[in-house]
Amino acid sequence: MTATDGDMASKGPSVGSARPGYVPDAARTEADVIFRAEGITKHFGAVVALSGVDLHLDRGEVLGLVGDNGAGKSTLVKILCGFLRPDSGRIFVEGKEVTFHTVQDARAQGIETVYQDLALVPQLTVYENLFLNREITGAGRMGVLSRRRMRGLAKEYLDNINVHIPNIDAEVELLSGGQRQAIAVARATRQDAKILLLDEPLAAMGAKESALIMDLVKDLSSRGVSMIVIDHNYAHLFALCDRLNVIQQGKVTLDRPVAETSVNELTDLMVSSFRRQLEAGHLAAAED
After folding, report:
1. Backbone angles phi, psi at 135, to 5 degrees
2. Are 89 and 37 in contact (CB under 8 A)?
3. What pLDDT does 14 receive?
4. 221-249 core/surface letters (b: 16 or more CB in 10 A; e: else)
5. Residue 179 CB-density burial (10 A; 0-12 exposed, 13-18 middle, 19+ buried)
6. SS3 helix, strand, coil % of the chain, rounded to 5?
7. 270: closest CA among 261, 257, 282?
8. Residues 6+ apart with CB under 8 A from 124
9. Which of 69, 198, 210, 279 is least surrounded by Cβ atoms within 10 Å, i.e. has the fewest?
10. 50: closest CA among 245, 275, 261, 288?
11. How many CB atoms lie within 10 A of CB 196?
């Protein structure tokens, strides 16, 4: 069931607030849209994982995806990053229709994913992780790493995006959770990513570490990097995002700026959906 404007008005006052500098949809044009997915459908056997999902992302926008387990969030993200192919639907990047056969195809369009497990190598240093699989070798010295240059470029890039790591020679396993997440995001953006897909970026972090990532997201957004954030924590989504999409049973049922919705509304929407699914399950069991 899609939430209507009337439903929204009945929920009472909003607790959301727009991020400074964010321009609402009404003031934007098609040229502002960097990514669009239309009619995305995906089946796994008889199971309908996604049913005609429409989604768009503006330049520099942070879009939050929220939904219960099994709602279709993970499947959608895997399609957007090229890991899965949809059964039907179309994807556009900067107005051009594209087809992703692999993750590399999505990366070629500037789409990078940072998963909750980070995909960092704990035993390698900060700068080695930043240049993982993209190492720099010395001129005329085939296979010999130019570690001094990589250290210098790593420090310069981290300083540029306001990520302050005291020692870039430190092994990543010695860093805090927030610092590791920042390194993973920095590695993705260093590869010229225009769109970041962030999976639970604040999971299991304290307030200080969360603040580091929130500041990084806002800084990247101000530089024009667009982001889709998947998170189960509503407080995280309201702190990070400009706009929210709720996915339920493979469909987008809510699409609103954070300033026009609230934690209470999202909670009511999810509880109502869960009750409907329970009732449907009980009816199906009774018919059997």
Report:
1. -65, 150
2. yes
3. 42
4. beeebbbbbbbeebebbbbbbbbbbbbbb
5. buried
6. 40, 25, 35
7. 261
8. 132, 171, 172
9. 69
10. 245
11. 23
Distance of CA 61 to the CA centre of its chain: 11
Q: Which residues are CB-contacts of 128 (< 8 A; sequence separation ≥ 6)?
A: 121, 150
- Dihedrals φ, ψ of 93, to 5°? -120, 120
**Mean pLDDT over all residues of the chain?**
84
Please report, as a single letter, which amino acid is at residue 147.
R
Give the per-residue SS3 of 239-266. Answer: HHCCEEEEEECCEEEEEEEHHHCCHHHH
199 vs 40: which has the higher pLDDT: 40
pLDDT of residue 117: 65
Residue 101 exposed, middle or buried by CB count within 10 Å (0-12, 13-18, 19+): exposed
pLDDT band for position 142 (50/70/90)? Answer: low
Torsion over CA: 66, 27, 193, 99 (sign): positive
> And the tokens for 123?
């035993």
Can you give the pLDDT at residue 119? 75
**In the prediction, which pLDDT does 91 show?**
97
The radius of gyration computed from the CA coordinates of the chain, to the nearest angstrom, equals 21
Tokens standing for residue 198: 């962030």
Count H helices and E strands in the chain, helices first. 9, 10
